[in-house]
Design brief:
The chain is α+β, with helices and mostly antiparallel strands and 370 residues long. 31% of the residues lie in helices and 28% in strands. The chain has 2 domains: 7-71 and 98-179 and 250-331, FAD/NAD(P)-binding domain (3-Layer(bba) Sandwich); 183-247.
Length: 370
């Protein structure tokens, strides 16, 4: 492929990863975002070992490590005591922890790094129309000053999230379903009465809580009900609430990851439950994988490589979410009585660690040479 301007729509983690890796490989992409700044209430926290490996060659990983909180254990607690602890330091590879950092901080680190490399995000610039003539895309943009611009990029990368304009303009379907229950979440300050060395899941059926720390006293609280600060476990002593919100979990997958010279990455292509912390990480991997394929002239393989991975992750995450969130009496019994036994088996531990580290999906080929 002739080197030229590649348009990236969306400056979230997936789009920024694509831009960083393209720039590292000798391309100068154009990246736009309709927002004036990264959203302060973005959802993702976990940066897994695979992502740290992917962002290491560019120098971004070292910057993230300076800011993030290293999580080395996962804790499962029942109504009264701890049921199971899983040691994340047993993961394979150079990073034996999950890094916890609010998504807006991750995006800020990535965006600053990209600017240092000479590529600035064009903010308050929006894609309003996208067509393809033959094999070449034509994009109509609305710039920050309200001017309309017609742009002929070499290719378009849609990294514009769940409500992707790129996906809609290409007429692609986003099939799947949404869980009926509402979930609540909040960023909180707390007096730790339990370990903050990693996520803690409190199973107080019919209420489920997860506490994901990103410092010694601050954490993300997630609950399987609309008001996350109600019915809190006694160990959770909240001293301050920074913000709170609600959401519904969806599992959706686009029918085509690429159409002509238009490609989708991240939430524009797939969305699922936060179980396992794979959402943002999978999107970053999409963007980096596509950048590598652009550099070696094999973009025709992008969908063949990435859609099966997303499909497998969606299935694994969906089954895990339904198991943990179910109020079925048999499932509750299994979680509270049998999981402490099953969870200590080598099979369960290895499977869980593989999901958390992303080792259950193909390793990025370019990293084998770096």
């Amino acid at each position: 492929m002739k080197r030229g301007r590649i348009l990236i729509v969306g400056a979230g983690p997936s789009g920024l990863a694509a831009a960083i890796e393209l720039k590292r490989r000798g391309f100068t992409p154009r990246i736009i975002d309709k927002n004036s700044r990264p959203p302060a209430q973005s959802r993702a926290l976990a940066i897994n070992p695979r992502t740290l490996q992917i962002l290491k060659p560019s120098g971004v990983t070292d910057k993230l490590l300076q800011k993030g909180w290293r999580m080395k254990h996962v804790h499962f607690r029942g109504p009264s005591d701890e049921l199971l602890e899983i040691d994340l330091t047993k993961m394979d590879g150079p990073y034996k922890f999950i890094l916890s950092l609010p998504q807006y901080e991750t995006e800020s680190v990535m965006e600053r790094h990209l600017a240092e490399q000479g590529v600035r995000v064009e903010r308050e610039c929006e894609l309003v129309k996208l067509t393809q003539e033959g094999d070449m895309p034509i994009a109509t943009l609305q710039t920050a000053v309200g001017r309309e611009e017609v742009f002929d990029p070499a290719m378009v990368i849609g990294a514009d999230g769940v409500y992707s304009v790129v996906r809609a303009q290409m007429g692609l379907t986003f099939t799947g379903s949404t869980y009926v229950q509402d979930w609540g979440l909040a960023d909180i300050e707390l007096e730790p009465a339990f370990s903050m060395d990693g996520p803690t899941l409190f199973d107080r059926s019919p209420n489920l809580f997860a506490v994901i720390p990103f410092s010694s006293t601050r954490a993300r609280l997630v609950a399987d009900h609309l008001l996350p600060l109600e019915h809190l476990p006694p160990l959770l002593k909240v001293t301050k609430v920074y913000w709170k919100s609600s959401f519904r979990i969806s599992h959706r997958l686009v029918n085509l990851f690429q159409k002509g010279r238009v490609f989708l990455v991240g939430d524009a292509a797939h969305v699922h439950s936060p179980f396992g912390g794979r959402g943002m990480n999978l999107g970053i991997e999409d963007g980096a994988w596509l950048a590598w394929q652009v550099s070696i002239g094999e973009t025709h393989r992008y969908m063949l490589d990435r859609r099966p991975v997303a499909e497998d992750v969606l299935k694994a995450v969906d089954s895990g979410t339904r198991f943990l969130a179910s109020n079925n009496s048999a499932m509750m019994l299994l979680r509270q009585k049998f999981m402490p036994v099953i969870g200590r088996t080598r099979y369960f531990t290895n499977r869980f660690l593989n999901i958390m580290s992303a080792d259950n999906t193909p390793f990025p080929p370019w990293l084998e040479d770096e």
